[in-house]
Amino acid sequence: MLTIVFINIFTPVFSMCSFSENCTMPPYICNPPYKLDPQIPPFKSDWKSSPACPMFEGLDVCCNSDQNYAMQYKFSLLDSTFGSQVGGCDICAANLKLLWCYFTCAPNQADFVAAGPQAIVPSPIDGHLMPIFLNNFTVTNSLACELYNSCQKCPYVTEVSAMQSPQGFLQFQGYEGIPIGLLWTTFYFDDGPNSLSLKFASCQENITNAYGYTVKPCSCNNCEYLCAGDYYISQPSTLHGVDWELIGYFYLGLFIITIIVVFVQWRLKKKQQRQEENSPLRVLQDIE
């Protein structure tokens, strides 16, 4: 099996953090995040448990132990929403974890995450007012497309109309953070030098480890790139709403039925003629 390893090299002197978070009720219930003002440089991780983002282990990061706890819980939700345990693709879930790890922990977080103000908004679950933290997350277009390609055939994605495009998929993820992370993340798509650009694993790769997460290989059920061509069923060819293939089959069937009917009628007529020729009345007439 192939193990994917991604190594990112940062320049710490230019790296800055945008926001932080404290949790008062472990392991995952946190207060609204807050903006780091003035911005501070990344710091040595002090994670009191296994890292939610193994790709950053041992590095200076922008996430604290509280955020590590919170991400562990949120990542379990990603597995139960997009992963193989619900008929989805583990590589999709791993790619989403990588995205949120960079959003929360990357030492150059301030390059692509702009922390905004706090706001009071209705909960998307029951409508009660809740304090949240607004922020912007700028990513490249290729990042959005690669991530969406690995997730688009997961059952949850196929059932939600808002997630039928790369941009819609990410905006939906940003809105879903309101009830759990008290974050409303708005995605921006730009190919500038400061936008986050990541190389994601493809759902068709036969791997068991992605970025330090154990994964199961995906299948045709949740990754269209694994579906053999022999099993691909194309849509009927149509012109101005007319299905010519279906019409062709109809007339072919009608032609065959017509031939059968004509043949049966001919056979019946021949049989009737023979019966008439062999009837006693016809024989008597011939004698006379």
Automatic annotation (TrEMBL):
InterPro entries reported in the protein's UniProt record: NPC1_N
Record GO biological process: sterol transport
Keyword Electron transport: no
Name of the protein in its database record: Niemann-Pick C1 N-terminal domain-containing protein
Gene Ontology cellular component annotations, sorted alphabetically: membrane
Domain Niemann-Pick C1 N-terminal positions: 50-228
One Pfam family recorded for the sequence: NPC1_N
GO molecular function: sterol binding
Transmembrane annotation, as ranges: 246-266
Keyword field: Membrane, Signal, Transmembrane, Transmembrane helix
Signal sequence residues: 1-15
